[in-house]
Known about the structure:
By secondary structure, the protein is an alpha/beta fold.
Amino acid sequence: MRLFCTMCARGGSKGVAGKNGRVLLGKPLLAWSIAQARETGLFATIAFSSDSDALLDAAMDAGADLAVKRPDEMASDTAPKIPAIRHCLEQAMARTGQTPDIFVDLDVTSPLRLASDIVGAVELLRSSGARSVITGAAARRSPYFNLVEERRDGTVGLSKIADPPIVRRQDSPRCFDMNASIYVWNVAAFLEDSRVFYPDTRLFEMPEERSVDIDSEIDFALVELLLRKQQAQQGTSS
Length: 238
């Protein structure tokens, strides 16, 4: 079974300037995800997409197989990510002459994942037969009990109300925060209908300490701290 890996990173960022190429513990942020993809041993091709030539060069230096220039219309602040992922996948297929059965998209702003998380998410797709797998961590707030949303008139209420009502928190469905770390798709299903959620989508659970997505300077500092801790623990166990 052939697998591809895609990664998509814009040159611009409002939350953290130049974050995708910013140095994190001695190497560009994007290099962490490329190294994790390589470590799995799963992928025939790792394709990196960006509108930035500098990021494309950095990705190739970090071990990516293909540099895919993203069209400008897919690189604005308001552009959705799915078309960019599809463009990267189709370019990788065209340039390699190969069609994978499964592909994985890794968000370069989530460097705390382990290679084993990628392997686990892929195995869940294979074993379940689902069209897609996402990743997430257990939610801190339940929409059935303490997550509220504001209505148009300014009043607030619970985000989700069960029928019949759920009176004990432990009886409510498990809820998760998507961590935007790993997305796995069946290629045929994605090319037919490119989206994240299908009726059979599954979730691969990751711990909170590997689920921080960098979207602010505070996130960057927290990821650096957690990576240092992660590396220290790996050094101790080796």
